[in-house]
Design brief:
single chain, alpha+beta, 6 helices
């Protein structure tokens, strides 16, 4: 195959239209400025109708179902906030490294969870998939009194000391 033919074939496989770097930036800004109001006025506009959202506790399909997860977050946590530290883009797939801070109750200490999200965009630049990766065992389960003790014992036994 000639170099010109390879280039044409590669271009045909790429997703046209959307500027994925700009879409990823818009998505990050919506997350960092997330509130009960901006959830519907900014973030919701960036989701495809059939978006898939997955984290250690949820796996849903659909914009309404995904928005419900965030609404639940605002209903159960105090001052939830995401801060993005790193980002990467590979074609139409974005990777976001973040810290999520919140309080369980108004006068409780701030809890911080570090994680990463994989975000896929469609040809129109809408998010079709958002998958969160973070350690629920260390960040949640290990902090439950009796359950945490058991998890720490298992981790201690399995670690290569």
């Amino acid at each position: 195959m000639t170099e010109h033919t390879l280039e044409q074939r590669n271009q045909a496989q790429e997703l046209p239209s959307a500027d994925f770097a700009l879409q990823l930036q818009d998505y990050i800004e919506a997350f960092e400025n997330l509130s009960e109001t901006t959830l519907l006025t900014q973030l919701a506009l960036l989701f495809d109708t059939n978006v898939v959202f997955k984290d250690p506790f949820n796996c849903v399909t659909g914009k309404a179902e995904t928005l419900h997860i965030f609404q639940h977050m605002f209903a159960t946590l105090e001052q939830p906030q995401f801060k993005v530290s790193h980002r990467a883009l590979d074609g139409h797939v974005g990777f976001i490294n973040w810290v999520f801070q919140f309080r369980l109750q108004p006068n409780k200490p701030v809890t911080a969870i570090e994680g990463m999200s994989r975000v896929r965009f469609n040809q129109q630049g809408l998010v079709t998939e958002h998958v969160d990766f973070w350690d629920a065992g260390a960040e949640v389960y290990a902090k439950v009194p009796l359950l945490g003790w058991g998890i720490r014992q298992v981790a201690k036994r399995l670690s290569a000391q």
